[in-house]
């Protein structure tokens, strides 16, 4: 019989794991007597080896019956730790991936990339957790799990803070709220066993964690606050009438109308709703002796909004109205859109002036992303098959546009209920819009609409041009 090296089984550590030394080299670690026998069998020892023979095995810190390991507790801890890290990995990837690939600004893409990188670290921490709560073959596994718990705590705390601003239910709440509790438990457990001590330079590790956290916070603040505010936004509108021409067969004058829109700002924009309307103005002329009375009578006319000394009883008659730009379409920086129309005016119309108003409501593209395909769909309010049907006697005849909008910072999307753009156009009313949680399920407070206008950078601009009717008729050869 060949002589084999002497086996020494060392005392159990804090988790009940006992190191096995064969000769002068570590052969492994075992949780139980059965594992010890399997280990020795793989090393060439006979299965019938007497483990209680002091000439074969030396027991230090207890005999062959000293196995304080609690396998169910250990396995439950491992499963809970890996499940939390895995859930945090998925959450970080869902937050960061859309911004990393589709955000408009560089800063927002950097923020998305930071969350994707955090997801990669958390994925590695998930694998490391199996080793750390197992046999700990890697010295860095504990520190990596600790880093994953710190990242989870920071992100879950940020998401909870943002959620408490409006307290709206979102499915993500069922993820980041439990993760916040989980991260507290994980940090308590890892701090109790001083998981960072196995690292050769624990202070360097701590400094790296702090610096990474600060850089992430600065990047997030820049992308959500400074950069969207600093980038200017300006939409220039222009309207002009061309040379009028009489109709050879009918008693009308054809007046060319040219409308244009150009993005002179530094950020692309989505057009939510727009309208151009042409009016004919009539008035009664007075001596101007009683300016106060005439001024009040001018304002008595609905929608007048003008007061002149010698002009009284202002009236505006709609002549033409229409949509200028398709809702949901974007206007890039420097892009210009021109629309030309021809307006028909009766030759015997007693208009003093012809007035055109062009109005455009837009949203900054660096604040959000609109489902343009959905918003472009036209829903006629009088169509009974439309989801936006409303009886004509109640709502009139309107065109309704409705689509979802997402914020370019995905942190906001996961802590809020979905937001929608609803725009309504009709030929006899000014266009209306709403950016809110409204999805045809109850009313929306005006305060919410104002808050969402600010959040998504929604603004309205218009241009108003008037030309005397005499000038148009002279141009038509009258």
Quick rundown:
Keywords: Membrane, Transmembrane, Transmembrane helix. The protein folds into 3 domains: 7-59, no CATH class; 75-230, no CATH class; 235-475, Immunoglobulins (Immunoglobulin-like), CATH 2.60.40.
Question: Would you write up a description of this structure?
Answer:
The longest helix is centred in the first third of the chain and has 32 residues, at 71-102. Strand 16 (419-426) and strand 17 (429-436) form a beta hairpin. The strands form four sheets. Strands 8, 9, 10, 12 and 18 form a five-stranded antiparallel β-sheet that branches. It contains twelve helices and 18 strands. Helix 3 (106-132) packs across helix 4. The protein has 478 residues and is an alpha+beta fold. It has helices at residues 33-42, 71-102, 106-132, 141-166, 173-192, 202-230, 291-300, 372-376, 392-395, 410-414, 446-456, 469-475; strands at 7-9, 18-22, 25-30, 57-59, 235-241, 245-246, 252-263, 269-285, 311-322, 330-331, 336-346, 353-364, 368-370, 379-380, 399-407, 419-426, 429-436, 458-468. The protein folds into three domains: 7-59, no CATH class; 75-230, no CATH class; 235-475, Immunoglobulin-like (Sandwich), CATH 2.60.40.10.
Strand count, sense and barrel status of the largest sheet are: 5 strands, antiparallel
Overall SS class:
alpha+beta
Inertia-based shape: rod-shaped
Number of domains: 3
Can you tell me the CATH architecture of the largest domain?
Answer: Sandwich
Strand fraction: 25-35%
* CATH class category label of the largest domain: Mainly Beta
CATH topology annotation of the largest domain:
Immunoglobulin-like
Compute the number of strand runs.
Answer: 18
User: Mind telling me the C-alpha Rg?
Assistant: 37 Å
Helical region count?
12
Mean pLDDT: 82
How far the N terminus sits from the C terminus, by CA atoms, comes to: 129 Å
CATH homologous superfamily grouping of the largest domain: Immunoglobulins
The amount of helix comes to 25-40%
Keywords: Membrane, Transmembrane, Transmembrane helix
